[in-house]
Amino acid sequence: MSYFEHDYSRRPGYFGIFVLMLISALLGGIVALFLGPAILGQQDLGQEPGIEQQKQAPLPEYTLTENPVVAIAERVSPAVVSIVNYQHTGFFRQLQPSSGSGVIFDSKNGYIVTNYHVVAGADRLEVIVQGEHEYEGRLVGGDEQTDLAVIQIRADNLPEAVFGDSDQLRVGELAVAIGSPLGTSFDRSVTAGVISALNRQISVAGATGQEINLNVIQTDAAINPGNSGGALVNSRGEVIGINSVKVGRADVEGMGFAIPINDAKPIIRQLLDKGYVSRPFIGIYNYQVVSEQLAQWYDLPEGIWVGGIVPGGPAEKAGMQVEDIIIRIEDQNIKTAADLQGVLKKYKPGDQIVIRVVRKGQAHDLNLTLGEMPRS
Questions:
Q1: Could you report the per-residue pLDDT of 152-178, keeping only the tens digit for each?
Q2: 73 Cβ neighbours under 8 A, 6+ residues apart
Q3: The domains spanning 63-277 and 280-372 adopt the same CATH topology
């Protein structure tokens, strides 16, 4: 019998096979959809077992004009100026320039705030606005102890920066520094970072070499020579600090400091009103700090040892004597020179305070009326 002569039973046609396959596929998909999560525990294939992931909102998409740093730069940069300090030096009295920055805060009167060390000793001041307009600057007043100064230019249609509230700053928020690092060629440079710390206490050499103590804002926004006197700005485009100093060591990166604008405001006001800052005066000199170690060695209280008393000054009138040790002013203990300076900042000339001194082991409370610090 040939191959074709075998008796095969009847088989289903191709259409029936196709229908059967389609039904099986649909049933399999339904089973996988409803039973799969229960069997697999709803575990994502790309997720490591045991790590719970939370859904996060997508990051905002910024266009160029919506970027906060761009908006800050556009708003504040026009009010940040370059200041060139020309001084006669050498045998031939040649004019030598140095440069810094400043911030226009009163466009009507042309007032600019800057650092004292930017303008100290100037024979001529040149102010460059928006990189092209040059004006002669006049020193209104300066204060070395706070490293602040106000100068004035005569010009129309000046831009103006807005002062913010530095007491509301929080560590970690956006900080933008604007100034002229390395001179006028890089005027109104913008750098961005964050507020790194608040209420830092630093000691620096003033314009005349005198050591001054500053309360400052710390930021990692790049501050370089020439940025001094420029603006530190918050996310709302408000000036919250006057850039002043940076740590310039090779092993340090990103430590710049600015004077809080709330500290600067009363200084600026006095400079505008008087041309100088009026400070309370006790009338002592040649004083030394009795540290904890010295106190233990010599069986003395910690405080300020008085080495000299100004004749006719407030301390003499109150009965203070040489070798008294100041240990308390009003309700604050005094152990360091910073304590003494800090408490005096709360008062003004003419205020009456109680100073506690220790004299030969006995405590005495002296009623003292503060005088005004001599300007010289």
A1: 999 999 999 999 999 999 999 999 999
A2: 176, 178, 190
A3: no
Phi, psi (degrees; rounded to nearest 5) at 186: -120, 35
CA 103 to chain centre: 15
- 339 a catalytic residue: no
Domain boundaries, the chain: 63-277, 280-372
Within 10 angstroms of residue 230's Cβ, the number of other Cβ atoms is 34
Q: Which one is catalytic: 77, 82, 117, 166?
A: 117
Q: Which residues contact 237 (CB under 8 A, 6 or more apart)?
A: 71, 72, 75, 76, 162
Q: Give the CB-side neighbour count of residue 367, counting CA atoms within 13 A.
A: 1
Whole-Å CA distances, 363 to 269, 301, 355: 39, 10, 10
Question: What's domain 63-277's architecture?
Answer: Beta Barrel (2.40)
**Res. 32 pLDDT band, cuts 50 70 90:** low
* pTM for the predicted model, two decimal places: 0.74
In the annotation, is 88 catalytic?
Answer: no
Tell me if 267 sits within 8 A of 135, measured CB to CB.
no
Distance of CA 105 to the CA centre of its chain: 18
**Which of 61-70, 169-178, 346-355 comes out lowest in average pLDDT?**
61-70
Q: Which fold has domain 280-372?
A: Pdz3 Domain (2.30.42)
Higher pLDDT, 360 or 132: 360
pLDDT of residue 19: 53
> Rounded to an integer, what distance in angstroms lies between the CA atom of residue 340 and that of residue 326?
9
For the chain, count helices (H), then strands (E).
7, 22
Catalytic residue among 82, 98, 143, 147: 147
| CA dist., res. 196 & res. 191, Å (int) | 14
CB-based contact 115:159 (threshold 8 Å): no
Concerning whether 133 is annotated as a catalytic residue, the answer is: no
Q: Which of 99, 101, 180, 228 is catalytic?
A: 228
